[in-house]
Q: What sequence folds into this?
């Protein structure tokens, strides 16, 4: 199944754990894997303890690794100013696999699934959740 998420861009970090949980458990698979993927070359998925300090630390770390105002070859070629966003998305990756056992998504108590939108404008993102039974 798929669902859409609205974002503000500029490394917006959005907790999508509930949507993933609903999508993953809809098929009533006892043991398997939920594969989650976000479309687009300026967005990514990860997990984090979704509290303001950890989210801010992640955003600041990404700013150190791929600063928004650095020079990027992508910007020279396309002039869209989001070279930092493509780089951050490539480093963070667009997908995750989460095990399901006893019918439950095996996320830790403080482990939330986040969508990161790096683009330099608001976007609407499509997230795919595909559940595969392993038994
Ligand atoms: Zn671009």
A:
């Amino acid at each position: 199944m798929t669902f859409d998420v609205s974002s503000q861009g500029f490394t917006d970090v959005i907790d999508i754990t509930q949507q993933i949980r609903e999508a993953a458990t809809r098929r009533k698979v006892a043991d398997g894997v939920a594969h989650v993927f976000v479309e687009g070359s300026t967005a990514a998925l990860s997990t984090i303890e979704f509290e303001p300090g950890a989210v801010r630390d992640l955003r600041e770390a990404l700013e150190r690794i791929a600063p928004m105002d650095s020079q990027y070859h992508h910007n020279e070629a396309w002039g869209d100013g989001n070279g930092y966003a493509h780089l951050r998305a490539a480093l963070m990756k667009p997908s995750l696999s989460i095990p399901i056992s006893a019918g439950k998504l095996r996320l830790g108590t403080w482990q939330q699934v986040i969508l990161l939108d790096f683009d330099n404008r608001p976007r609407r993102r499509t997230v795919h959740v595909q559940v595969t039974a392993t038994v």
